[in-house]
């Protein structure tokens, strides 16, 4: 019996050894093909990205890698795994062309985890027309923060089901973390520093942005709907974030980045800007020392008087159903110096000066925390309702709100108002 048991044990061990060398055993972690590379394998890595098949993972060991660019397209269930953001470094500074550092197109099920991407000529990582995208423990950094940097650091666009988590973005000449024309997105536990915009949610629906820190940018957080894009945004919640000290010079590129509709419009000193976006809830955030405007709610007409001509199923220029409540807001004693050199910054300075000139009792107070352009759907319907677009504010404290009366800014009848009563949540 003992000998039989011994042979039986050997047989079982043999079966296990065969199983360990079988194709099925290579499916550890749910990936049929598992590839691993180290520094010096850059040519092999670039080829592997181009030739990936469904259900593949690539592990990049600790070290510095130098690439021109990397591209993945039209596959399913892909993982790109590094050893950690401070350990696996992908450097694109020698890039010979102005495209993305990493480009991912039409991938269903894509995860990138645990590495730093740095110094691409164009966007750092662009995920295009993909589904079930996860970017985690990813740093995307330009060493110099100026107009020579690429536009977007972390850049999913026209995607579905996106998670950006524990990421860091620095130096983008547009937005550090940008989610565009996407359905269902989460941005959480991320940081963005020294970008024009820390984070931008643009023409994106059903997004949640929470537990983030956006600081030291021109503007902390933007929720924009722009015309001439493939879809309309809305239903965005931003909560439990820390937006602070966003007072830096706007270094957006000229052309597409500095156009009428571009992020070049963001004034230095902007905490949160909601532009032509609807169904937005902004709550339980700390919005501190963004020294031009803590929160701005503006219509497309504020930056382009022809915005009404751009209306269609994908674009409506006037923000509606905006709920702002339970945020902690503070501003410094003066506008940041960069605001006086910026076109929107100069407008904000002018609003503050007008308020204090028409009401000496303000004793030269700062611009109120919430700046609303006051342009409503009355401009389209010829109505007279006071708050037809459901701006709902529930905040405590003095100097909370100004209706800019933007349509009359160039006339003698211009009279911005600090009366918040019509906008207090009922």
Overall description:
This protein is mostly beta strands. It has 3 domains: 1-26; 31-141, no CATH class; 183-426, no CATH class. It contains 4 helices and 31 strands. The protein has helices at 2-20, 42-51, 343-358, 378-381, and strands spanning 33-37, 56-60, 63-66, 70-73, 76-81, 88-91, 102-105, 108-118, 125-128, 131-141, 152-157, 160-165, 168-170, 175-180, 183-188, 191-193, 197-202, 205-210, 213-215, 219-224, 234-239, 242-244, 270-275, 280-283, 286-288, 293-298, 322-325, 328-330, 370-372, 391-394, 401-403. The strands form 2 sheets. The protein has a 20-stranded parallel β-sheet that branches. It starts with a helix and ends in a 23-residue tail after the last strand.
Give a quick summary of the entry.
This protein is mainly beta and 426 residues long. The chain has 4 helices and 31 strands. Mean pLDDT is 92; it is low at 1-28.
Mean pLDDT: 92
The class by helix and strand makeup works out as mainly beta
Number of domains: 3
User: How many strand units?
Assistant: 31
Nearest-angstrom radius of gyration? 25 Å
Question: Looking at the chains present, what oligomeric state does this protein adopt?
Answer: single chain
Low-pLDDT windows of residues: 1-28
InterPro entries: Beta_helix (IPR039448), PbH1 (IPR006626), Pectin_lyas_fold (IPR012334), Pectin_lyase_fold/virulence (IPR011050), SO_2930-like_dom (IPR022442)
Keywords: Signal
Signal peptide: 1-25
Pfam family, one: Beta_helix
């Amino acid at each position: 019996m003992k000998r039989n048991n011994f042979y039986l044990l050997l047989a079982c061990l043999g079966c296990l050894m065969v199983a360990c060398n079988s194709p099925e055993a290579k499916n550890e972690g749910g990936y049929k093909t598992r590839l691993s590379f180290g520094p010096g394998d850059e040519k092999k890595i670039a080829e592997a990205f181009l030739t990936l098949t469904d259900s593949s993972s690539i592990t990049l060991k600790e070290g510095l890698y130098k690439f021109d660019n990397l591209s993945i397209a039209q596959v399913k269930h892909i993982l790109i795994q590094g050893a950690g953001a401070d350990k696996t470094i992908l450097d694109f500074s020698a890039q010979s062309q102005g495209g993305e550092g990493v480009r991912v197109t039409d991938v269903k099920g894509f995860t990138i985890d645990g590495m730093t991407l740095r110094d691409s000529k164009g966007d750092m990582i662009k995920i295009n027309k993909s589904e079930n995208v996860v970017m985690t423990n990813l740093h995307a950094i330009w060493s110099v923060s100026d107009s020579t940097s690429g536009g977007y650091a972390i850049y999913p666009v026209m995607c579905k089901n996106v998670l950006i988590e524990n990421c860091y973005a620095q130096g983008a000449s547009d937005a550090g973390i940008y989610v565009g024309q996407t359905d269902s997105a989460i941005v959480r536990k991320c940081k963005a520093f020294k970008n024009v915009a820390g984070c931008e949610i643009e023409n994106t629906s059903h997004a949640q942005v929470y537990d983030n820190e956006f600081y030291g940018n021109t503007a902390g957080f933007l929720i924009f709907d722009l015309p001439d894009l493939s879809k309309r945004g809305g239903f965005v919640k931003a909560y439990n974030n820390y937006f602070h000290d966003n007072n830096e010079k706007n270094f957006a590129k000229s052309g597409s980045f500095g156009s009428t509709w571009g992020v070049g419009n963001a004034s230095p000193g902007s905490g949160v800007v909601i532009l032509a976006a609807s169904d937005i809830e902004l709550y339980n955030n700390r919005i501190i020392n963004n020294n031009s405007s803590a929160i701005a709610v503006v219509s497309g007409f504020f930056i382009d008087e022809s915005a009404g001509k751009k209306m269609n199923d994908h674009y409506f220029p006037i923000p509606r159903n905006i709920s702002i409540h339970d945020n902690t807001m503070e501003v410094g004693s003066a506008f940041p110096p960069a605001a006086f050199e910026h076109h929107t910054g100069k407008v904000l300075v002018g609003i503050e000066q007008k308020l204090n000139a028409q009401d000496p009792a303000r004793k030269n107070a700062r611009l109120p925390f919430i700046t609303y352009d006051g342009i409503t759907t009355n401009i389209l319907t010829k109505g007279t309702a006071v708050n037809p677009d459901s701006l709902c504010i529930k905040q405590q404290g003095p100097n909370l709100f100004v209706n800019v009366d933007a349509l009359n800014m160039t006339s003698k009848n211009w009279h911005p108002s600090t009366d918040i009563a019509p906008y207090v949540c009922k």
